[in-house]
Specification:
Distance between the termini: 49 Å
Number of helices: 9
CATH superfamily of one domain: Decaprenyl diphosphate synthase-like
CATH class of one domain: Alpha Beta
Largest sheet: 6 strands, parallel
Number of strands: 6
Strand order of the largest sheet: 3-4-2-1-5-6
Radius of gyration: 19 Å
CATH topology of one domain: Undecaprenyl pyrophosphate synthetase
Shape: globular
Helix content: 40-55%
Structural class: alpha/beta
């Protein structure tokens, strides 16, 4: 072990000790960004970058468990990403299917796919649903796997589901318009019944949400990390938690 590794380990342990479990965010959303740029920077193929990013997920979930986080939302693929060329999107979908299946095989986390699954290839949607079903009875960390996800799409789907629900009951349109409120829309989101994210982390240096948990993150804290997702380390995660713990949350007040 080199001197840098030794110093890094000391710093990491010190940082972890300073974080009280009572200050941990209950729900953490993570935008796993920078896989393609990591691949280019290291002379690899794009698919290698996506695979490296997929390989990092188990580490993140372990760190979240250790910190006392209850819910994690991973944004793996946006609705916009679906328009990429077949040369990239097809291998990426296979990587995502395998990664989620491997997470399910661990038998440690309860997986919940969120997104417009009807926009995905049938085999991808079925694979994600199978992983969710296999982990349905598992307690502990709840992991939302956002694939084919877009915040605007989610809100549109929630409103559509709400309207269809009322229409099935024969509710007149004017009464529907009068009754629609925040709570009703929330009850039809992909994440219904879950706490909103306390902390949203985005890697790769980009400082924008891009539609991630658009409704749910209205009062979230944000942390932007320069590292590409495959290079995201435990110490980077701990720094995000430290930043979160040091903030005075006002919840819009």
């Amino acid at each position: 072990m080199g001197l840098n590794d030794l110093l890094y380990g000391v710093y990491e342990r010190r940082l972890a000790r300073r974080l009280g479990a009572d200050a941990a965010p209950r729900h953490v959303g993570v935008m796993l960004d920078g896989n393609r740029r990591w691949a280019r920077a290291n002379g690899f193929e794009t698919s290698d970058g996506h695979q490296a990013g997929a390989d990092k997920i188990k580490d993140l979930l372990q760190w979240c468990e250790d910190a006392g986080v209850e819910v994690v939302t991973l944004w793996l693929l946006s609705t916009d990403n679906l328009s990429r060329s077949d040369d990239e999107i097809v291998p990426l979908l296979r990587i995502i299917e395998t990664a989620v299946s491997d997470l399910a095989a661990e038998g440690r986390w309860r997986l919940h796919p969120i997104g417009a699954l009807d926009l995905l290839p049938v085999e991808t949607a079925l694979s994600l649903k199978a992983s969710a079903e296999a982990t349905r009875e598992i307690g502990g960390l709840h992991v939302n796997v956002a694939v084919g996800y877009g915040g605007r799409q989610e809100i549109a789907d929630a409103v559509r589901a709400l309207l269809l629900e009322h229409a099935a009951l024969g509710t007149p349109i004017d009464l529907i318009a009068e009754s629609v409120n925040i709570e009703e829309i929330e009850a039809h989101l992909y994440t219904k019944g879950q706490p909103d994210p306390d902390l949203v982390i985005r890697t790769s240096g980009e400082q924008r949400l891009g539609g991630f948990l658009l409704w749910q993150s209205a009062k979230s804290e944000f942390y932007f990390c320069e590292a590409y997702w495959p290079d995201f380390r435990h110490v980077d995660f701990l720094r995000a938690l430290r930043s979160y713990a040091e903030r005075e949350r006002r919840f819009g007040r």
